[in-house]
Structures are given as structure tokens and as C-alpha cells.
Write a structure and sequence with these properties.
Helices cover 46% and strands 14% of the residues. It is built from 11 helices and 10 strands. Strands 6-2-9-1-10 form a 5-stranded parallel sheet, with helices on both faces. A hairpin with a 5-residue loop joins strand 3 and strand 4. Helix 5 runs parallel beside helix 10, helix 9 crosses helix 10 and helix 10 packs across helix 11.
């Protein structure tokens, strides 16, 4: 309820009625003030705080979400439930228009901001090419190879992750189409799919989700600036930065895009968000975006 009008209201209105310029200024100021009040009333909470806060779920929503999770494979269901119980967040960085637009630096910078807030952060790079890893690729094709502490030959973006986040990543932190298909084919050869027709959806997409959630919960070693050694901790990360390489719209990245869409359905939009980096060219004269 609004507070009652002040007793001087009638007197102020009568004074304003005899002074038209003053009345117009007063009415304009009143309208502007009310616009600010309405805008402030509808401004949502801080996006980072809202994203990091535990989601409030109703009983009906929790029941329907649990029913959807029961239809997942047992391994994926266990990983999803572990992510929800630990309130772990996943941020996916994608790119558009062209490759090499700065997704790696953007993902690393986002990780630095969360690390500065006191969160434990890890990273995962997805490369849609069919190579199992970057070790056999020419540096003229895809840049230099970054070798991790465990001997993994990975994309150069993982070097940015390690420098920005001060962590020591593993070979599982670099996922490629070759690795996923190799894993799915090995499962099919030993009969893990129980004679089913192995398809991109749901078998490859489920394998991608399992890989992402498994890396997101794996503890990583931290670099110490004073001793220049690794500080191994058993505490799992709280935030995982996932970079999807290439450009959205490429045929080779479609299974990963679909898997990430399904992962957001399984985790909920409060636990997985997307950050898209795109080129906005300025063309013509006068220049327009």
C-alpha cells in the first residue's frame, strides 16, 4: 500500500497551478522518478550471484526433474546427481562467424574472475576434429602442441588455462571427436550397449555429457607461486569452464552442441550457462554494425 499523501499536497498543487513552467517541471520530474522506481523494482538480481546461488526448486519441479533423470543411463544419471548435489556450475564458451576469435582467452578470463572470488575452477577444451589428440597434427595446421604434466598432447588453449588458473590439467581436459568415437566404439565392441543400434543420439551425446561431468568433478593440482610446485588437493572443482572449439554451425561440432543442450536440460539452466563470442563487423559508409 502507498503511504497517505502529505498534508501539504493540496497547497503545493494550488501553487503549481498558478505557475505553469514550474508545474510542467514538477510533473516531468515526478514521471521520471516513477520510471526509475519501476525500473529498479523489476531489475533482476546480480547475474553472477543468481547463477552461483543454489536454485530454489518446488516439489513438483523436483519430481518431474527426477523422473527425467531416471530415463538416463546409470552412469550419466550418477554423474548428473553428483553435480546437482555438489551444486557445481558449468560455463560453456562458444564462438560464431569465424574461428580464432578469442574463445580461449575469454574462457581463461572468466575462470580468472571466478578464481579471484575464491572458487575452485577447472577447464575443458572441446575440439571437434577427428584426430584423437593434437600430437600428430602439423603446427602449420593447428598451431603448436601443448604437452601437459601427464604427457597429454593437447591444444594450445590448455596452456592458457594453466597459466590463467594456476592449475595443472590432465589429458582428459582436452576432448576431441576422435576420443569420443574411439570410446563409443570400444564400448560397442565389448557389448556394453547390449546389442542396440549405436547412434549419435543418444549414445555419442551421452558419452560427451559423461566426459564433461567427469572432468568437472576431477580435482586438479594448483601451482604455488612461492615454491613453484604443485599443491595437490582432493577437493573437487566448484566451477568448470568448457570451451567448444571451432564455429557454431560447423557439421563436425553438431554432436557437441546437441550434447551440451541435453546437458543443460539435465542439470537445469541454473547450473549450466552459455557464453557466446561472436564477430560484429562494421560495414559501409556510414559504418554500421
Amino acid at each position: 500500500p502507498f503511504p497517505p499523501p502529505p498534508p501539504r499536497r493540496e497547497r503545493l498543487l494550488s501553487v503549481a497551478a498558478h505557475s505553469k513552467p514550474m508545474r510542467s517541471i514538477s510533473m516531468s520530474a515526478l514521471v521520471l522518478a516513477w520510471r526509475w522506481v519501476i525500473c529498479l523494482a523489476f531489475i533482476p538480481p546480480h547475474p553472477v550471484a543468481s547463477f552461483l546461488a543454489p536454485p530454489q526448486r518446488s516439489a513438483a519441479h523436483a519430481s518431474s526433474h527426477h523422473g527425467r533423470l531416471q530415463s538416463l543411463p546409470p552412469t550419466l544419471e550418477t554423474l548428473v546427481m553428483d553435480t546437482l548435489d555438489s551444486d557445481r556450475k558449468i560455463i560453456v564458451v562458444t564462438g560464431g562467424v569465424l574461428s580464432g576469435i578469442g574463445k580461449g582467452v575469454t574462457a581463461s578470463s572468466i575462470g580468472v574472475l571466478f578464481r579471484a572470488m575464491g572458487y575452485r575452477v577447472t577447464a575443458l577444451k572441446i575440439d571437434p576434429y577427428l584426430n584423437v589428440d593434437a600430437g600428430t597434427m602439423s603446427p602449420f595446421e593447428h598451431g603448436e602442441v601443448f604437452v601437459l604434466d601427464d604427457g597429454g598432447e593437447t591444444d594450445l588453449d590448455l596452456g592458457n588455462y594453466e597459466r590463467f588458473l594456476s592449475v595443472s590439467l590432465t589429458k582428459d581436459s582436452n576432448l576431441s571427436t576422435g576420443k569420443i568415437y574411439q570410446s563409443v566404439i570400444e564400448r560397442e565392441r565389448v557389448g556394453e550397449y547390449l546389442g542396440k543400434t549405436v547412434q549419435v543420439v543418444p549414445h555419442v551425446s551421452d558419452a560427451i555429457q559423461e566426459w564433461i561431468l567427469r572432468v568437472a568433478k576431477t580435482p586438479v593440482s594448483r601451482f604455488s607461486k612461492t615454491t613453484l610446485s604443485n599443491d595437490t588437493t582432493d577437493e573437487p572443482p566448484e566451477i568448470c569452464i568448457v570451451e567448444l572449439g571451432g564455429t557454431l554451425g560447423d557439421i563436425e561440432s553438431m554432436p557437441f552442441v546437441e550434447a551440451l543442450r541435453q546437458l543443460q536440460e539435465n542439470l537445469g539452466y541454473k547450473n549450466l550457462c552459455f557464453c557466446h563470442v561472436s564477430l560484429v563487423p562494421e560495414l559501409g559508409n556510414p559504418r554500421e554494425q
